[in-house]
Fold this protein.
Amino acid sequence: LNQTDKTIALKRGEALVTALADAASTDAITASKTPNARVWCALITLCARVGQPARAIEVINIMTKRQMRPEDHAISAALNACKQGRPYFEQMLRILENYPESIRRSTGVCNAAISVYLHFGDFKSAFKLYSEMKAKMHAFRRMKDTDHGASPRDVRVMENQIPDTITYNTLIGACATNGEDVKALELYHDMIANGIPPSLRTYVGLIVSLSRSHGGSRADEAEKLFNTAIDDGVTPNEFLFTSLMDAQVKAHRADSAFATYDRMLKANVKLTSVTFGCVLHACWVCEDPEEGVERAYAILQQMTERDVMMNDWCSNALVRVISRAGRIEEMLEEVKKIVRRRGTVESETLETVIRALCRTGYVERANRFLSMMDSRNLEPSGLTLMAFITAASRDGFVGWAWEAAKRCARAGYVLDVNTRSALVAVLSVASTSPDPDDAELLLARALGVYEGSYKRAEANGDDANGVLDSESQCALIVALARGDRIDTALSIWRNTTRYGALVDARKHTSSEVKDYIGDTRAMYESLIEVCCHEGMIDEALEVFDAVKDASVSVSTVTLAFLESSCRRSRVDEWRIFDVCAQMRAQAEVKASNRLARPSKQSHHVRHDDVVDIASELQSKGLGGAQSQNTKPSTWRRGTGSAGP
């Protein structure tokens, strides 16, 4: 009852037993029987409850020397104490081998042994022992149903060796811990078939096993079991309600979880921090992130009203809810609160924060949280690392993006198309910057990412042309062309254009640099210009033909350079005329677009329905009716009899 210290309690218990033994030592007849078996069993139970399995085993050996046998409950207590170490448990099993089967195979002793087996993860031995108990159940039922001539004593002994509710609850609880929902339901059906009544703990274990199923939470079956428990006369408490809510949350059925929570409130069931943490997780999976945040704040208010302390689990859940809605400052404030009270920020919460910061463009903050995870020896998931790579690449943090990519490779994560494309694009752009110290290295990294993903796709039988998006492919081709690797650039270009992979390459926006290389125009211009510089006129004309087929408008300077190179190389005259015709066609399209564009209107012209300009000029101001406090204009000449 925690009313005294465990060490003091054990010392006092041993002192009482010693005093009894000393008092009876003067009489040879009573000395061997004092203390009696009940006192020794009480001492064994005391040793077990204070966590002294070695001392409990020692007391059992003393009883054996005195030709006494401990009762079932004392052996069960000693076995449960053996969870502190496997050697203690093995020693207890050796002791039990010398005991008769009526004690060794009694229900209480077997239940304790099953619990210890499961504690050490020995499921095979636990279920083997259960199978032996189940066989005794079949023998007991045959003994009762037919006349075998068994004595009432044999029937009682057999009845004391069959599984009971505790047996099934222990095994179902182990199945729930490991997500073995099918095995848990089999045990439940055996329980019903053998006429053993389920308890509240039985249904809690079953619903938990369904929520942790390896195939995903089975919320529908959990709800049916919940209703079955009520039909069986079980009064649902906070554990049963919370287990059902957990199954609904893991199935991403937030509305059902909120309905269960409202049902708890109406039933006036005690709400614990576990309950509130579960309903906060329901806010996390809510379809509308903003609705989830508002519900979460309402739940926090209810926690305060019921004097339920906010623990780390609830705090981490709240951070995830807020981060999903993109409320960055509120999210960071909640993280600070956890740190200030020296709480634990869970790894999953830190990853959620990092992904939220990456989504909203706070790459430097996200990098600090990654460093926090490193300092705590927490390894981020592939999803988090790829989100960071994409964000860092988008904002031009080449070093951070590459380091995160190396971490992904070390952990065995394969980058998805978006992450891979963003990484290749930023490496390609960085390699073309003015006089970079490591331009060749950056270009080699970009090419290595592309080639590695291309080979992996071919090996897996996937579409190798979809390893990068159009933008990153254009950027890589331009970087290779400008980096004196025109042959490789042409090879990649030929392979991608053959399958129309560059159709969706976007144009650069006004927020990007003018020399942005991630679009088709920059790619074609670079290929044509570099080929002309290298004297590869045939390849330049091949690219030029692709420009015409793709209806892409390239720079007039590029076309003029191609024309000049063609004249110097003495190619067929019609090819020169073709280049000139393309220049003329682009110029005409540009001129027609300029004419079609509406000219800028003067800000002095009104855009309402006034069409009489003369009457408009006669008015005192261009706004129609004039206020009495407005001074008449002095530059207009008066009309009629009106003076200036």
